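hey so u asked for the seq, here:
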Amino acid sequence: MEKVFCSIVGGGVVGCAIAYELSQKYQGIFLFEKNRYLGEEQSGRNSGVIHAGIYYKPGSLKSRLCVEGNRLIYRFCAENGVAALRIGKIIVATNSDEEQIIKRLLIRAKRNGVPGVHLIDGAEVAAFQPGVKAVSALHLPTTGIVNAATLIKTLAKLARMNGVSILTQATVSGISVREERLEVRVLYGNGKEERFLSEWVVNAAGLYSDEVARLADSEETYKIIPFRGEYYYYNAVSADLEVKTNVYPAPVLVKVGTKERYDVGVHLTPTFGLESDGRERLSKRILVGPLGRVISHKNDYQTGRLPPEEFISRVQPFFPVLRVENLRLEYAGIQAKPAHTDDFTIKRSRIHPHMINLVGIDSPGLTSSLAVAKFVALLFKDSE
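ran it, structure tokens below
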């Protein structure tokens, strides 16, 4: 049985960020990803938005790590050649009730320390983003977009360069305490099993983080609710359909499990395109979504996909130029919504102080990933 320093379960953006962060100080790190490729689940099936940190409760891990992660991700991408653009975002109000919502969000943004957020009126909205209809909006200048796939690949590459072993098609099938360490059983795609005696285990398994936590502690009560977000896209073939910033409706509160959360709504997100010179720039391909709902299975991306009319009805109040015939079916993603909280959970397991569970790292997990990694690294340091 091989003795290792740390086993990381999950190769999404958070797992890869943790591997890279820890590899700058420690050796003997292994990352196990059950899928064939890194980032196949939440990390690779989202809007690719770099969030500012406006929706989350002041003082929560989500608010703190999102605001810090926003700063870190732009710096990391600039230093490592990952496509990321600070294109901003407007959260639009189309009536007086929605104006009250965005004014409350402005107060929350200030409490969360989100820089530069301010109100603009309808005329400023029209000048800022033609085609959008609103009586007012919040402008968030630090919001942007990132190429999530390239970010994950870059984090993994840097981690490998620092000595991390990244194994795909490697499912962690058991975790138990042995000799004051943690025995990690790994089942490979070819049917072979291997066991590792690990000083630390980091559970960054996303949608399956509750199940991985119970591998170590059968009495663990974490529960992930799979929440599918569906997307369409369109090509901005005319000037009135062009979108050069993120455009969001005023959010609404929805109940997931026992907790109320902001549903940010169906929004418009510009995407990257590869130019002839090999550089990534804004394209005319615009994401429309997600439209979300709770589903029964964590891997059900297709059953009962919603028709384009559902998306048009959500977008029409603030972007009336978009038509059903413009839309084309795009991917769906499934977020790991925790039943027990509306915040991230990052805490030690009851069965061993060197097992750290990250549960319910849903949105803004992509934005927060580098800050989450630093938070986890502090837990290692505190135990030295």
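The chain has eight helices and 21 strands. The radius of gyration is 21 Å.
lmk if thats what u needed
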